[in-house]
Design a protein that fits this description.
Jelly Rolls; elongated; 3-stranded antiparallel β-sheet; 8 strands; binds zinc ion; 35% strand; alpha+beta
Length: 133
Amino acid sequence: MIATLEIATSEHSVLVDITDLVADKVRERGVQSGVCTLYVPHTTAAVTINEGADPTVAEDLLAGLERLVPWNHPYRHREGNSAAHIKATLVGSSVQVPIDGGRLLLGTWQRIFFCEFDGPRTRKVRLHLPTGA
Ligand code: ZN
């Protein structure tokens, strides 16, 4: 089954912790075990899993990506957002998280982040969940 999250951002580039929203969907749908696939159907946004305990990690991830792929560069794409397209490709458009006992089996420090690289915008994250038991 598919569930959809809508994520509204207010900044140009930001990582949004969506772990609790995903966990709510797993609980609402009564999923006990299997794999949750999260998929971002956008070309300038992404999804990743990384440390959420210290918020400076997300800030450093964004800053590191900006150093790798600076916004200001003579890219060819006329829309002017090639840096966001490149970051989306580097980070990726999907992740998978195992579910057991109705819970996401994330590591102690892991959180799921929606990554906006060309906001602010309202975006979708698709969740493909196993059928609830
Ligand atoms: Zn573009």
